[in-house]
Amino acid sequence: MTVANPSVTSAGDNVRYVPGPLHRDAPFFVAGHHGLVGSALWRKLEAAGFTQLLGRSSKELDLRDRDAVFEFFAETRPKYVVLAAAKVGGIIANSTAPVDFLSDNLRIQTNVMDAALAAEVERLLFLGSSCIYPRVAEQPINEKALLTGHLEPSNDAYAIAKIAGIVHVQAVRRQFGLPWISAMPTNLYGPGDNFSREGSHVLPAMIRRYDDALLSGATHVTNWGTGSPRRELLHVDDLADACLYLLEHYDGPDQVNVGTGKDVTVRELATMVADAVGYSGEILWDLDRPDGTPQKLLDISQLVASGWQARRELGEGIRATTAWYRANRSSLRT
Question: Alpha carbon of 75 to those of 25, 26, 45, 78, 118: distances in Å?
């Protein structure tokens, strides 16, 4: 991957894009700019000097509404798009509402990408999830592992939608020659996360659970499963940095893994959260609750070889996220 001035040159029916610095004054649509990823990306782009950022809340623009999405793109004509909007949730949410996760995400992705194509968006980055890879895959998981095995049943509907998004990007590249790309982040955390009791992922769920126990004076906290699964966690601000880096440095049909290259057991994570919260009670495990995928550690060699690495240490990130949660607890969804 080399840096050059971005340009598009015709080669028969194909188009070759040379990555390089994006124009800071071009219209840039961040789909899902109020979410965990979108808000972090918005902060990153503002700090990087982008002056025409476009964002719409779900109330202002329902991305499942095809006509509304096409009208928005026709009016705003963005040059760049990051598709960070998605219906997301933890194990229980994915297990109990798989139709919602499949249908909503397919509609969001298809509408945004079709409208972006009609508006001739030059550069689009689609964000997926590490759950696209087989439940049992060789660790660390290389990009080539996609579609080589069975998915984790507890979130297979969401994973299928994200896989469809990757293929959609690849199809646009083949049929229309546009330099659209995909990135697959590992498990994310940070300011703006979902800390709700039923819809959150493992880390924000633990932060809330331990903080509630501290406030109530509970003598023990019970976590789901055995605690043996291993999880890789990436601070969302590092992901935002990686997104801009990929937009300016990478062009290719394959999704690019984004992570830290390190993982911890859920038990180790529980101890780190307890320390960050200041909770010293007993930690118990509900073995009747599901563990989910045994391990998800991404092979990030492609991204590292290009010159990018995550900077935030996990313990420091958990402490900062705990502080953010406490400062915003009263306004968060329950």
Answer: 17, 14, 22, 9, 12
pTM (2 d.p.)? 0.91
Residue 107 is predicted with a pLDDT of 98
Cβ 255 vs Cβ 297: under 8 Å = no
Q: Are 292 and 225 in contact (CB under 8 A)?
A: yes
pLDDT tens column, 167-188: 999 999 999 999 999 999 999 9
Task: Determine the Cα–Cα distance for residues 154 and 91; give it in Å rounded to an integer.
Answer: 6
| Residue 2, both tokens | 């080399």
Q: What share of the chain is helix, strand, coil (3-state, %, to 5)?
A: 45, 15, 40
Report the CATH fold assignment for 7-192+233-260+298-312: Rossmann fold (3.40.50)
- Per domain, the residue ranges of the chain are 7-192+233-260+298-312
Just list the catalytic residues: 158
Which 3-state string (H, E, C) describes 151-212?
A: CCHHHHHHHHHHHHHHHHHHHHHHHHCCCCEEEEECEEECCCCCCCCCCCCHHHHHHHHHHH
Instruction: Decide if 302 contacts 253 (C-beta within 8 A).
Output: no
Please report the DSSP string for 98-148 in residue order.
HHHHHHHHHHHHHHHHHHHHHTT-SEEEEE--GGGS-SS-PSSBPGGGTTS
Contact call for residues 129 and 159 (beta carbons, < 8 A): yes
Unique residue bearing structure tokens 């320390």? 275
Residue 267 φ/ψ, nearest 5 degrees: -65, -45
CB 273 within 8 A of CB 203: yes
Instruction: Give the residue-averaged pLDDT of 262-270.
Output: 97
